[in-house]
DNA sequence: GTAGGGTTAG
């Protein structure tokens, strides 16, 4: 039997000519398979995105791809569902049934095509010389969503299109751009964006400067962060408590505690009217002193907060618990843990991991396992850090069977272990002479898609 | 609830 199929699909403004078949087809099964594959390629695959990539010669491929993906995710999922449902059609001999399947697919695909066209033409603003479509609110919403997803190329491209159409996104939207750029370490672009804001608007606000300062701190460039701070003050924007905290934290991380205190004093004396009663600033300074090995000074901050009647939170307790754990005084940490419960605060995964870490380092693996059981009873889910410390701690002490129980629990909780964890178990079995299990775990590692590395071996 | 601040391993 020879069939020539040509389907013409009409949309509101344009026609898509889809050549599905121009070949000899022998059975209805192959008709179904071919049609399903063709539709899957056209509507579920990347063919639409490739089309634009080729036409515009890579000028905006990533930007467009991101926009299309963002706009089209939902309808793509609907279409996939349609195909999965058609799999159950087994009436191979019934020509009518095959065409019913075709009808369903075509109807659904036309709907999808319509949605996709709307999405693409929306994303295509300005590219084909069209007028500026869509409302300001819509554009701003999609820009913010793209920024939060880290699709900055696409969002900056939309910003450019908006500006071409003399519509300037507001300062909040610009802060979203800036935040995205800073989080991905693109400080040059971030700096450029702030210059653009100063030059053409909207005027940067306190959050704009704070975001840029934080960006520089993230790449460990505190000097530039301090320059941004000066620029903010010089341009007449008042720093707030967040500005203080960003800089104080960055200076503490560098061990410049005295500089941090001086800066804080200057800022607070000049600008802030909140006094010194800020939990976050005190927590940062307390943490800085603990990490500098100055327990006395750290405790002075804690006591000062108590005297002021500051309501502590989970993070401030985590910092003091970590402080005593790192000075090898887990007993004192337990005291603060108990105080935490008494004051109605619920310890989180940070609290428990801090204790597990300290106990493992001291070789008190039973205590670490006990903390694990407490966190489980309290409904706090262990994360990859909890498992990593317990598994490594148990393997070091030769308890590979118990370590593997945690490993299994990790997999059951859908946490894929990193190579180091697999290697610890493999090595643990090797050291205990259990070659069969060592090899079995290595096979499992590969099956989970984790590539063995140079440390994936074992000594017997 | 449109942006921006503090804690765990290595």
From TrEMBL:
PROSITE patterns: PPR (PS51375). Pfam families: PPR, PPR_2. PPR repeats lie at residues 170-204, 205-239, 240-274, 278-312, 313-347, 348-382, 383-417, 418-452. GO terms for molecular function: mRNA binding. SUPFAM superfamilies: HCP-like. Keywords: Repeat. It comes from the Eukaryota. This is Pentatricopeptide repeat-containing protein. The lineage of its organism: Eukaryota, Viridiplantae, Streptophyta, Embryophyta, Tracheophyta.
